[in-house]
Amino acid sequence: MISNKMQELVNNNSVIREMFEEGQKLSNLYGKENVFDFSLGNPSVPTPEKIKETIIHILNTESSFTIHGYMNNSGFEDVRQKIANSINKKFNTNYNFQNIIMTVGAASGLNIVLKSILNPNEEVIVFSPFFIEYKNYVKNYDGKLTIISPNTKTFEPNLEEFEKKINNNTKAVIINTPNNPTGIVYSEETIIKISNILKEKEKEFNSTIFLISDEPYRELVYDNIVVPYVTKYYDNTFVVYSYSKSLSLPGERIGYVVIPSEMNDFENIQCAVTISNRVLGCVNAPSLMQKVIGECADLTVDISQYKKNRDLLYNSLISYNFECIKPQGAFYLFLKSPIADDKEFCKIAKKYNILMVPGSSFACPGYVRISYCVEYDMIKRSLSSFQKLAYETLKK
Amino acid sequence: MISNKMQELVNNNSVIREMFEEGQKLSNLYGKENVFDFSLGNPSVPTPEKIKETIIHILNTESSFTIHGYMNNSGFEDVRQKIANSINKKFNTNYNFQNIIMTVGAASGLNIVLKSILNPNEEVIVFSPFFIEYKNYVKNYDGKLTIISPNTKTFEPNLEEFEKKINNNTKAVIINTPNNPTGIVYSEETIIKISNILKEKEKEFNSTIFLISDEPYRELVYDNIVVPYVTKYYDNTFVVYSYSKSLSLPGERIGYVVIPSEMNDFENIQCAVTISNRVLGCVNAPSLMQKVIGECADLTVDISQYKKNRDLLYNSLISYNFECIKPQGAFYLFLKSPIADDKEFCKIAKKYNILMVPGSSFACPGYVRISYCVEYDMIKRSLSSFQKLAYETLKK
């Protein structure tokens, strides 16, 4: 009955469902406080109180037609201008409302960008490990995913392989920094190298290769790490942003896409992305939330709580002799599995009521993702279990 | 730079943009109060005050994690159950939360249903006149649109042609009642006939043919007209609903899809629609608005204002000798163009500062759509202009 494309996804879905059900089952068996679920990427720091105050203020001061009505498919012009101003102030860019398109979160932003640019069989490059949904987004438009193998020393992208795999069929490259699942932030040097490679390849193939920078974790960085603003290095860049993490609003589906005026064929592309927003069915980003963002463009959650979680978990795991690159941002930690089979390692961890996601789910076997967007106390309670897990799996 | 599919849409888009700009231009020239814009489908009746109260109540009583957090891609279970209860009460059905999937409005609901069922080149049947975006939605999944020509006597569907055009490649049929652009409500007799034809054809071709009932105007009906609940007549029906019109929340993008348990392959399809919601990038319907709907599932705007508009406009136009079927629902009136070329008629109307949409935009030339979701006073002010338009175009 259902389409062939979807049947494949439905078949794979049972694995994800099983993982969720597993957590539920363990909670029922051992009590919620004795299960250590590090599998989800759901923000654990509350939404700032200012969001609530702003919603109420808007409801009390504007007409229902303005708050809940249709607007241009790109979003409210004043909100887009306020976001442009906020970006300009932070990153010394020069955007106005025409460079910003409001979207139903970053997932939808990625979809409308890919729909706008991809012809069937054109290639999109991603760097392993990567958020596995990219595969589905590319497949939605019959594109072909090209995966660059990981550099497991630093988890910076493997640029030699990248350079070799670009061809005249390459339409786009997706980067995600701060990264899910590694927590790594690409250095300025890396961004410059990627830009230079792309510029050379554009010349070589006389083509446009788009860089899509997926940045839902931009504000979640620690130790004064700087996240370079990619459009400053490469004109043909889409920045895809979401407030899901920076304001703990994942359920509200609010984000935006930045399209620099310097992008090749800017007007045509801006129009295509706006139309994609409409015809894919989003029509526009939720209107009340757009207005809220307009008033809170510079606000972020209290990220010190994530840093505190990272420090406790990272330092403890290292002290138990686990191997792991220190995360610089996002709320994930990418642990080397002490045994070759990461799925098997996750299975053993479950004996200690620890739930993690195998690296295979990010096209990077041999590792596991631990989400530390959880209560600090849960991390504390979990440590003796991690120690036992280390003892069982780390053969000397 | 952009995909071939999108380039086509971008090229067509200029027509729509010109229409919007035309209204702006006329307003600047003659003053806003002297321009009669009947071209848009934007609700003109305010959102009920209860919506605002409910938002504030939720913000004051629930935690930010619940209000703004992720949930199952199908939506909050309690909200889905409340919607199921509301439908059961009104239409004597027997749904529970598993039959309801919360969506980013009806446009997204239609997209995730079509993505779930359509293989390339499979056919979707629509009845002219129809909301032209259906064409784009079907094209998103490489389906083929089959258009049934209009029955301009009643604007009920042309069932003889319908029956002939169904073949073993037919995957779905979209109906929209109350209808945009005619305002017609399909009678129970019509729904029974459509169901019977589909059941016979399913047997003949040993296939499943889905009926997709797009119902954003369900509550906007006048004179005690009854809108049959389609799942009661045909099991393989998706009902696609939106609160854009019934609660004047078009910018918020909130709606749902009903999937009856009696549908062939129900579990597989329910799973596919949920996954489509995720991979197309919506992920889930906006969370705060879901919660609001849960508390306001039985609420509707004051539709008496639309009825008052309809009565004044319809009676006046008929008295000027225009021809038009009396609308039973929605907020549109489909006027017969007194001259064969509906685009030319719209051009003449513009001389009188009247803006309407040509029927060609609904695959039904020779007619024009007049949206009466406008201020009552604007209709009053426009009447002498309509009278002049009648005088110029209605040759005796």
CATH architectural name of the largest domain in chain A? 3-Layer(aba) Sandwich
For this entry, what is the oligomeric state of its chains? homodimer
The top level CATH class name of the largest domain in chain A: Alpha Beta
Mean pLDDT of chain A: 96
Query: Can you say what the CATH homologous superfamily of the largest domain in chain A is?
Result: Type I PLP-dependent aspartate aminotransferase-like (Major domain)
Weakly predicted, low-confidence segments of chain A: none
Discrete helix count of chain A: 14
Greatest interface (CB-CB under 8 A), with counts per chain:
A-B, 73 and 72 residues
Number of extended strands of chain A:
12
Give the overall silhouette of chain A: globular
